[in-house]
Amino acid sequence: MLSSLFPLAFFFLCFFSFSPLSLFLSDASAGVAHSLPTLSFEQGYTQLFGDGNLMLLRDGKRVHISLDKRTGAGFASQDLYLHGFFSASIKLPSDYAAGVVVAFYMSNGDVYAKTHDELDFEFLGNIRGREWRVQTNVYGNGSTAVGREERYDLWFDPTEDFHQYSILWNNERIIFYIDNTPIREIMRTGGIGGCFPSKPMTLYATIWDGSTWATSGGRYKVNYKYAPYVAEFEDLIIGGCAVNPMDHSSDCEKPDAAISDPLTVSLEQRALMDRFRRKHMTYNYCYDRQRYPIPPPECNMNQIEARLFYGQDGVKLGDRRGRRRRGQNKHSIVTQADAAF
């Protein structure tokens, strides 16, 4: 495990060696990403919405955000960042959670309304006995007409314990991680062009009602008799330089140091990523021929994989309803009472 984390640690050495953030390197250089300093809520975040639906515990080191019939909740970083490493350990609501969406993401839509960038982890709740799904998405320069969603199931129950979800972003590529395993890499290529996120963004965490689309295309809604739905966040890490959103200036001496030394993924980590994607990816926008008869230009399609394992709608064959939650009875079903409003 430690050897698999070395490339991540090496990035920090290159990225921060010329900035005040070099203090993050004490343990990361040894390959232990989770030992990077974590921030309390007061040190790095501010409440976005939700009034009393945000609760601080452990001196602000743990944050609970909840959804009830009245409102959801969310928080955001106090600053905008151009490139860096952003991470949180998250525990999701258990039991019946259809329609519930928990998001951990970066965006600048409040600053660049028509040309915003976005990097998303979205967690999609499910009916009792079915697992949460994780969705990643990328927008750049207002390219919302092209959704670049990928969706995955998980090899663990995300409601039983905390798991780490991370976004690493520099000028050359974006990598999404789950528990330090890379699951998706987006390269800055000619195909993606100006749709690669390139402007400072804020980090967000939210919980909200996505009944219209989140579970089976909106078939199952949030049932507020199970509220409040509580998502727990801890080990909050911001490894980047705060910048002025207007001129991209920064207090860091060389905030763009990563541009001259692009991150690479080791052969070991790439093998782990490929294995994850083969086993756990359940939807790929590049394979969605109904939505995109001509695939977006950045798609490097495996035609054999697309034909053998994915339907015309980009959903993995045999994965229409989603897997049952580990440990649940094989014959668990959704009752009318569960699905009722």
From TrEMBL:
PROSITE patterns: GH16_2 (PS51762). The keyword Signal applies. Keywords: Apoplast, Cell wall, Cell wall biogenesis/degradation, Disulfide bond, Glycosidase, Hydrolase, Secreted, Signal, Transferase. The active site is at 118 (nucleophile), 122 (proton donor). CDD domains: GH16_XET. Contains at least one intrachain disulfide bond essential for its enzymatic activity. Gene3D superfamilies: 2.60.120.200. GO terms for cellular component: apoplast. GO terms for biological process: cell wall biogenesis; cell wall organization; xyloglucan metabolic process. Its main location: secreted. Residues 1-24 form the signal peptide. GO terms for molecular function: hydrolase activity, hydrolyzing O-glycosyl compounds; xyloglucan:xyloglucosyl transferase activity. Catalyzes xyloglucan endohydrolysis (XEH) and/or endotransglycosylation (XET). Cleaves and religates xyloglucan polymers, an essential constituent of the primary cell wall, and thereby participates in cell wall construction of growing tissues. This is Xyloglucan endotransglucosylase/hydrolase.
